[in-house]
Amino acid sequence: MQNSVKKIKKSSGTMQKRESRLGILLILPTVILIGAVIIYPIIYNIILSFQKVALNPNRPSKFIGLENYTKLFADPTFYKSLGVTIAYVVVTVLGSTLVGLLVALLMNRQFKGRRVARSLMLMSYVAPMVATVYVWKYMFNGLYGVMNYLTVDILHIFEEAPMWMDHPVYSVLLVILYDIWRVFPYAFLMILAALQSVDESLYEAAQMDGASAWHRFWAITFPELLPSIAAIISLRTIWNFYKFDDIYLFTKQVPVLGVYLYQTAFATHNNGGAAAITIVLFVIVFAFVILFGRKAVRK
Amino acid sequence: MKQKKKAMSVLHYVLVILVLVVTLFPFYIMITTAFKTSEAAVAFPPQIIPKDTTLQHFKDVLNPEIFPFGRYFLNSFKIAFTTAAIAIVIGGMAAYSLARLVFPGRIVFKESTLIVYMFSGILLVVPLFKIMSSIGLNDSMWAVVIANLVSTLPAAIYMLSGYFETIPASLEEAAMIDGLSRFQVIYKIILPLSVPAISSAFIYVFMIAWNDFLFSFTFLSSQSKLTLAVGLKQLFGSMDYVWGRMMAAALLTAIPVIITFSAVEKFISGGLTAGGEKG
């Protein structure tokens, strides 16, 4: 025993080297995979964005310089799409985070059935997106949808049923409501975890000082939650800026950049143009991360 | 004072129930519509409590001549299982490396999660599609597996390295003094200890891959290779779509993930909050 300890000490230099080599060896597959599936496509994409890509894969693509970009920046649909995307991102990110915060505050106390309630509240986030989108489409159907029955005939919010999937404004509202419903559990879980790690003694001290619940929230709870909230906001902003699938399945009326990009690539088969949109989209998100996200997520 | 407390508690329950109603209402509609007759599904005012029920929609969805549910289910399962298996092996190795071993560049890797998220989903679709076609992987489940790996690997690594860090290092040191190699330590000590963490990471990745729509929709084209998510869209797009059938299929697609999630929810919610979800 004594001997082997000595041996280990003696060989600790080579051992460290071996450990370091093993460390690199073990992480190598991940690096190769991420490199192959992220870095290579991005470089490839930059090249594509300067080309007029031939439809026939056997014919060469032509280098056209910045033409894809100048065309994109001259296209009014692009600006409309950008505006819709920004509105969608701002409302959904703030909305889902706020709902998540409120529900987390609601669930941050002991009561009977809490565990079951918590699990059930995650359902919208766990279930497959496609399955839930179609129930929503059914619920918001203009003829027999239950939501129109509730909002028109029971609650009298609307005079007549809005065309949720076809009206340019209501369809935006619909995809926003859906996204908040679907992803608020993510904010809820993260904020609940942060709430449960707040030091109880802080509250006790504040209570003795006679601080009201409202005051305690802003003075103690909120500052403790701020790092988590900032992280949620930055991640959700990235994800929703790239939003495609549920909006695409819902309606043709909400031309966010993700849908615009997909249509350019696979409906108009303009791969060079789509590549240029990809780069612009990435630059916007990258700028956001540099300005806001890096600080927030490092925590 | 006591009365006020009681009133607060009642109000609290009312609010919790309100949140539950809003969250679960679409699922309620999904389930009831799956059992309604086709006439009842389009009745107005809607039958919130179904009156005319039938099992026909489930029979239809499971009838291969109407909807190849079994095949799509199998395809989804193969893709999700393969993605999860690869993510756990590769991600587990990386996670151990980040948690335990000291090597140059370690910090950079640890902080690069956000960068990977910046390249997710729609951003990769165009170049990956071109690349997959050029290497002949178009319309192959492997294209979907590879694309899904990117969006799940960071989360798998995060969950697993977080767990490995909680295993006391002294345990491994002691074993190495006893003459075990690092490899034997991983194999004989770390792996058996990590079964719960590994299974929850596995199920988490499985869930994301099972729920994926974008990649399978983009990369797969032959009918025989489609996944449930894409199959559902087709069911809706066909001329004679029937709401009950749609909802029965949606329900059968959702049930496997909901069951597996409930089984490991305790372990997994930590991972959900760890970041690493797509869409």
Automatic annotation (TrEMBL), chain A:
GO cellular component entries: plasma membrane
Residue ranges occupied by any ABC transmembrane type-1 domain in the UniProt entry: 82-292
Subcellular compartments: Cell membrane
Keywords per UniProt: Cell membrane, Membrane, Sugar transport, Transmembrane, Transmembrane helix, Transport
Main localisation: membrane
One of the GO BP terms on file: transmembrane transport
Keyword flag Chloroplast: no
Transmembrane segments: 21-43, 86-107, 119-136, 170-195, 215-235, 272-293
Membrane topology field: Multi-pass membrane protein
Domain of life the protein comes from: Bacteria
InterPro entries: MetI-like, MetI-like_sf, UgpAE/MalFG_permease
Pfam family name, one: BPD_transp_1
Record has Manganese as a keyword: no
Family: Belongs to the binding-protein-dependent transport system permease family.
Record's protein name: Multiple sugar transport system permease protein
Native source organism of the sequence: Lactonifactor longoviformis DSM 17459
UniProtKB/TrEMBL annotation, chain B:
Record localization: Cell membrane
Main location as per UniProt: membrane
SUPFAM superfamilies reported in the protein's UniProt record: MetI-like
Recorded topology in the membrane: Multi-pass membrane protein
InterPro entries: BP-dep_ABC_trans_perm (IPR050901), MetI-like (IPR000515), MetI-like_sf (IPR035906)
Family: Belongs to the binding-protein-dependent transport system permease family.
Name of the molecule in the record: Multiple sugar transport system permease protein
Source organism: Lactonifactor longoviformis DSM 17459
Lineage, uppermost ranks: Bacteria, Bacillati, Bacillota, Clostridia, Eubacteriales
